[in-house]
Fold this sequence. Notes:
Layout: H1 14-50, H2 55-68, H3 70-76, E1 83-85, E2 103-108, E3 114-123, E4 128-137, E5 145-153, E6 159-163, E7 176-178, E8 181-183
Antiparallel strand pairs: 1-3, 2-3, 3-4, 4-5, 5-6, 7-8
Amino acid sequence: MTDDGRYTWSELSGKEKVARATQQSFNFLIVVIGVVMTGGVLTLLYTDVFSPNSKTWQFEKAVSRIKEDPRCTALLGDSKNIKAYGETTGNKWTRNRPIARISTTIQKDSLGREHMYMNFHVEGSLNEGTVHVHMIKPVDESSFQYRLLALDVRGHPRIVLEQTSDVALGGKTSPLKILGINWR
């Protein structure tokens, strides 16, 4: 007899019980693997795209700040025409300038704070320039805060949208260090 699930457990022979248990276990394992992989993909998607600490989120936030600032739009052109992109490639199509090519570095300092450095290009109908972003995540905070957000356009003075001192970000001034010993 073939086991298609119509027979109760008590009607099955020993071999059929082993076959059904094996098949059910395999099906359950496939479902568990699918759930774990779906959870992994959703977690990766959240941490890389939707999380407030992701590079993508911070990039979009910085671009919107550039587009909203009247000094930047006066220099670059209408905010609707401003494009932001990473490092250029050999391809001349602007749609092939992915966000993955944005120069981003994350480092920890001696006080345990994370620093995010990001550089990307902006291009408007009037000019093009480079945006410099330096953000700090204090030890006791869960999100990054701007230390520097500036736009450089060749032939024009730097436009600083945000500049904050280290102490204003909740950090301590660096301790005096002599002979490898921190003196406070």
